[in-house]
Every structure is written in C-alpha cells, then in structure tokens.
Amino acid sequence: MMELHTPRATKIIGVVTLLLIAAVSWTLVIGPEVSRLSEVRTQIQDTRDQNDVLRVQLARLVKQSNDLDDVRTTAEALAAKFPPTADQPGLFEAVTEAAVEAGIGGDGITTLAPSPPVAGGESAAGVPAPPPAGSGQLARQAVSISIEGSYQQTVRLLDNLEQMERAYLVTSVSLNGGAEDGFTTTLTGDMFVMPPVADPGDVDQDATPASG
Predict the structure, then answer these.
(1) 204 vs 202: CA distance, rounded Å
(2) Alpha-carbon span 13 to 117, nearest angstrom
(3) What is the phi/psi pair of residue 184, to 5°?
C-alpha cells in the first residue's frame, strides 16, 4: 500500500487532481463553448448561403426591372394585334380606312361581317365562350369583307389589310366580275381576341410582402 505522505504519492495525487479539474472544466466550460462555437459557425454558413440566394434574386429583379420597358412595349404591340375585346367600332374604322386609302372608299365596302369571338368551343347554352382572363388564350372570330373596285384597288386593299395594326389572317379571296365593270371581291379570314396581360410592374408590386 502506497504511503500518502510520500513525495511520490503527493505527485500522483496532484496529477489526478489536475486531470479531474481539466475534465470538470471541459464538461462545465469548454465543452459548451465549443458546442456554441459550432452552432455559430453553422449560423454563419447558413447566413452566407441565404445571402448568395438573395444576390441571385436581386440580380434577377434588377434584370427584370431593366427589361420592363421592353416588356411593356411588346405587350402594347400584342394588344394592338390581339385586342382584349372584339371592338367592332375599331374594326369597322380600320377596315374603312384601309379601303379609303386603296381608293375604294367607304361606299365600296358592301359587306363587313365579324362573328363573335370563340375560344375553345361554345358553352352549353350555345353562346361563344370568351377566353379565360389571364390565360393568354386567343379567341378566334371570323370576319368577312366584300368590296367593289378595280383589280389594282383590290390588291392595294389586301396590302393595307395586311399592314393593319390588328392582325387579320386572310384564308380565302374570291373575285367576280370583269375588268371594265370592276370586281366584287369577297375576303374571308380570322381576327383574334386575347385577354389583357397584367402589367409586370403591378404584379411585382402586388406580390411584394408588406413590411412589418
């Protein structure tokens, strides 16, 4: 049995005591600090990852903002070609203007008959179904035009109709009559209606969460 009062025993007891103190210090002080340090490092990495995501989102938003004017210009051009309603008064005015410029005159238009726009067939009641709002779906309406004029005037009218802001897809052209008496020309084709597209600036503003 080792004597406790000897120098060797005193050294052993001192070493054991130091080890116990180190173990208790690790358990009570150093261990929790290391654990908290690991958590802080994890939080820092998570924050960096979130910042990277936010940088990408910010770059995308800046690009969208820079392109907004071009998008609006394109939307306006599409709205002219594919108006949000049948707009029959505007249709009559555009066709009459095309005929007058061709030298035929408004009186030379003997028939101008647009049908109601139809998108995806008809409803159960047989009423033409309009395109759903915001769908971007085109509704088609048949438009028949009959005019009286010379061959040259008819050719100019066809060119004018092709240059209209509103899109007119001519599917058939029928000419009757002779060169001296002029021609009676019947055009059949399609025009289109498309619901208006929401302004992207308004969409972004509506989608922005309110600050607390």
Answers:
(1) 5
(2) 100
(3) -105, 115
Q: In what order do the strands lie in the sheet with 182-193?
A: 109-114, 139-149, 182-193, 169-178
* Rounded Cα gap, residues 68 and 61, in angstroms: 10
Domain 88-193 superfamily per CATH? Ribosomal protein S6/Translation elongation factor EF1B (3.30.70.60)
DSSP 44-90: HHHHHHHHHHHHHHHHHHHHHHHHHHHHHHHHHHHHHHS-SS--HHH
pLDDT in tens, 154-196: 889 999 998 888 989 888 988 887 656 678 889 999 998 887 7
Element (H, E) at 102: none
Question: Domain ranges in the chain?
Answer: 1-79, 88-193
Does the model's pTM come out above 0.70? no
> How far is the C-alpha of 65 from the C-alpha of 53, rounded, in Å?
18
The two three-digit tokens of residue 51, written as one number:
């910042």
Residue 209 pLDDT > 50, yes or no?
Answer: no
Are 179 and 151 a contacting pair, CB within 8 Å?
yes
The residues that bridge with 172 in the sheet, in sequence order, are 188
The string of pLDDT tens digits covering residues 114-133 is: 988 887 544 444 444 555 55
Q: Give 86: exposed, middle or buried? Use CB within 10 Å, 0-12, 13-18, 19+.
A: buried
The span from the CA of 147 to the CA of 114, in Å, is: 15
